[in-house]
Amino acid sequence: MSNSLSRSLPVLGNARRTSNEDHHGVVRHRSRSVSRLQRTSLAGPLPTKLGFSDEREKLAQDEGNEAQKLGSFSGVFVPTTLNVLSILMFLRFGFLLGQSGVLGMMAMLIISYAIDLITAMSISAIATNGTVRGGGAYYLISRSLGTEFGGSIGIVFYLGCVLNTGMNAVGLVDCFKQNFGVVSGSKSHFLYEGFWWEYLWASIILLLCTAICLAGSSVFSRASNGLLIVLLVSTFSIPLSACIRQPFRNERLGIEFTGFSSVSFFDNLYPRLTKGAAGSQIKRRENFQDLFGILFPATSGIFAGTSMSGDLKNPSRSIPKGTLYGLALTFSTYTIVILTLAASVTRESLYRDVNIIQDTNMSGFLIVLGEFSTSFFSSLMGIIGAAKVLQAISRDALLPGLSIFAKGTKKNDDPITSILITLAIAQITIFFDINQIASFVSMAYLMTFLVTNLACFLLKIGSAPNFRPSFHYFNSTTAFVGTIISGASMFFTDGVYATGCVCVLVTLFLLIHYMAPPKTWGDVSQSLIYHQVRKYLLRLRPEHVKFWRPQILLFVNNFESQYKMIHFCNSLKKGALFVLGRVLVTDDFATAVPVVRKEQTAWNKFIEFSKVKAFINITAAPNIEWGVRNVVLSAGLGGMRPNVVVIDQFRKDNSDASLDPGLPLVRPTRRTSSNLSDGEGDPLRKTRTDSFERDPPMNVQSYLTVLEDLLFQLRMNVAVARGFENIELPGTNDESPAKFIDLWPIQMSGEISSDGGRKCTNYLTTNFDTYTLILQLGCILNTVPSWKRSCRLRVAVFVEYETDVEEERRRVMTLLEKLRICAEVLVFWLASGDLQTYRIIVNGDRNNVDKVVLDAVEQVLEEEDWWNELGRYRTTSRSSRSQRQTPTGSGSTTPREGGRRRAGLEGLKRVIESSRRRSIGPGVSLGMQTHRLLDSMVEYNSDGNESSSEESDIDSYLSENENENEPEGNDPMTASDVPTINQPEETTEGTTAAATTATPSPRVMFMKKGRVASSAKFSSAPIPTTKVVSEEGTGPSIMFADSSPPRRGSATAAGLESIYNRNSGTASQPAVTSAEGDTENQPRASGYPSQAAVPLSFNDLPGRAQHLILNELIKSQSKDTAVVFTTLPTPVEGVSHDKASCEAYVNDLEVLCDGLPPCLLVHSNSVTVTMNL
């Protein structure tokens, strides 16, 4: 029989030839080894005899192991055939044929085999795409779909195999009981019956199967071949009986055997569903759902050969061949049995006798042997196949506690411990109801079919170049159809058990996902993600303002010191792009390449361990400026590019590496002793001191060059971070006192000169984009759950005088309402008397002032010329007043003295204004491209009045050079002289580069700055009214309205009038007493300068003085603040060329942020908010 089978399947009969080929391969390998040893001996000492013997013994052992491996026939074809030809053929085919008829049963058989065939093609495709090792279906799926899918389906398949083992053992005992039971036996009566007796017989069967499995694969193969012969003889005796046996009728059994009869065949052709037939398990009428659930398990054993993958000589070749030929044989056998049974037995016989095949066979003993062979092999295959799957899962360390099952014997790698634990579990399953076991087994097999087809489908559509299986008879359509049919069959057969099986699979998936260590197998999901990401990146267009979100590029240097800043930006990105930029400064690119790779590995490990959703972009450049430019220009891909660049503050002392989270300042060296990519330990603990040699500290001009490039050339939204090494992130400290996110959006004022260059006008520039970007970033941070739970959002603004407070509050709340931002609004007024720096600088009031504050002001401003000049003027003014006082203390002033005082103020104003103009020069930037307005764009309403040339008693301290360089005809403009400009600039991208609404500045006196590093100063003027564009267009939909300064108060007295509305005459004449009154008793506005002071406002002050005042204001309100967002004073373009100006700018920022909570200073070059739907 075996020879005839080999002749009928010539392709499968080449197992010996394959063995010879493998043998020759080993011989060739041995020859190469000997040659290698001989070549080695020419350069060194000859190998010892023992070493050569060890090599030869190892090769001989490999040859022996290879010889014991199985071929296509014994390793795949025989197990598949034995496992598919189920005992159900003998016990249930008569019942199925009686209910469904020939047409119905063949339809169900074809559907079952269609699922099997498609799945077999998917298995063949995956198995022929590379090396297949032990583990069967688990190995194929895990290496294709990844750890979670492979591990979960592997465990489900393992449980299905174990339950199938117990079910077949119980089924075999039931078969023996019906034939040889003391009570139920039809052939003999020697087998004891009863629950515990049946449990004993089933246990003996399992122990016998286990003993064969422990004996090794060769014993298993010989036993399988013998069982196959018995099964085929038993099966083909059915059509043989129909041919040679005479028709008969058995009244006791109620059956009638007609032999081959067309009448019987046509009577059994169509379905005829009944209730209560022999073999029925339900009380209602049968349906095709129940019948398919019984038939499909009889066809689902196609993974038997695949499970032997570890014992195959050539799995990639044997699995497709053996599985497909096994399916062909079993389908032919089933078809012959069904047609034979339908043509030889009446319909009534099928209803009455469930054991019709045995009762009509020429030898009932052959049928018993067939039932024994198929059940025994299924139990045998269930133990060995399940054990090998468990061994493979344990070796991959997917779940803790399984390592003990990973061991195998030294000779053949037989999974001894896995076999024993499988036996123990199978012993437990014997107690379960056999019908429930059968349902779960069916679900486990169908689930494995589904996932296998899914893996093949995804591999095919992923279009990975390395997916080139040598088996070509499949495509994505077949795999997809197999996936759908398998899933549908699960729920069609038994929806409850299908749902339970899916729940088990999902539970295992999650357990493995969170407990299994990372694997380097690679899975098809990466190919699919790549395919989809590429496709949608090509379709992604530049971001519309309606869907704007911060795509952050953060320049980093050290993940230990910048850990908190990285996590803060990760919270701020709002699900958008987050890139960590890294610059290595080097003059030797060849040396830098390995260092860049090590850095890439180290930062990727940091990102993985810290759970930050970021990318790393590393570049090497000869200097930091070019490195930053390269990173900014190259960061991102397609439509995903950074729109906010975050850099750290400039640090004057970078000597301590641990305190330097600023821009990268490292230089690669030739030392390679430190290996950042060795994978040992937590990457957070690794330092780069062994791999890099630090450059000298970054100079201030390089820092300003980087800042200017970002602001003016690259035109990015820029944020300068300060103090983030001390930020308390939510969740890190449950008792953190930080309760607020404070937003301080501050307006800027700047100088704009005409194209003639001689006319310079001060404007209040409403930097709407920066103002709203600060609000936007704060709102985004407050939407992060951890920040929302621990912090409240506050918007803090300030004006100078109390009369402006409520108007400012109303306008800010209106803006927030239109932007849909919920926040608490705080409005402060500087002239309240609470700010000591304001009293000292603006009012000249040094009484009741803390000496520490006074000394700090003097220390910060001691090198400022304007401050020294102002101090001398105030001193002279106080001396003059004390000398003018009468003995009676009336304080009256003569008209002559008042005139001399006014002349002195005019002279001081004229000299300081000329110095300021020499320092600033023409143009204004306000953090964006420098604008120079044409004369036609600015209308001047100068009154043409020349300032008085009258000498005063304070002219003595003015330098001659200042007087000589005073330009003619350039008097300071008063509030009534200054025009208003509203000129947003449209960029090529269609966004507004600078929605700048210029409103006349109320300044009356311009103070000279020692060095001008910033292009614009802060302003305390109330924000303009928010304007929403009524018609939808390409421009911004919300902006500040163009409006004149609002009136403040209804008082008509000059003392109650806001300083914004005072003209030059009023400003330059501090109230002079008349003959009837005394100025000391006249009412004044809140915070109005005293007589000892020059009449200044906050807007008149240079940047450093403003920073002092704002620092005290913010510091007084930020005791419970986690982070502060505020406006970045932008430098003048080109300031980086002058080191002194660079230092002045950096010092100004230090003054502003000194002692504050972590601050993010923001400047915007684009529109980030909209009112359009």
TrEMBL record:
Any one Gene Ontology cellular component term annotated for this protein: vacuolar membrane
An annotated GO BP: potassium ion homeostasis
Residues annotated as domain SLC12A transporter C-terminal: 565-647
Keyword terms, alphabetized: Membrane, Transmembrane, Transmembrane helix, Transport
Keyword Nucleus recorded: no
Membrane topology: Multi-pass membrane protein
Subcellular location: Membrane
Region Disordered: start-end pairs: 1-34, 658-696, 877-928, 940-1004, 1027-1090
Protein name: Cation chloride cotransporter
Organism: Trichophyton rubrum (strain ATCC MYA-4607 / CBS 118892) (Athlete's foot fungus)
Taxonomic classification: Eukaryota, Fungi, Dikarya, Ascomycota, Pezizomycotina
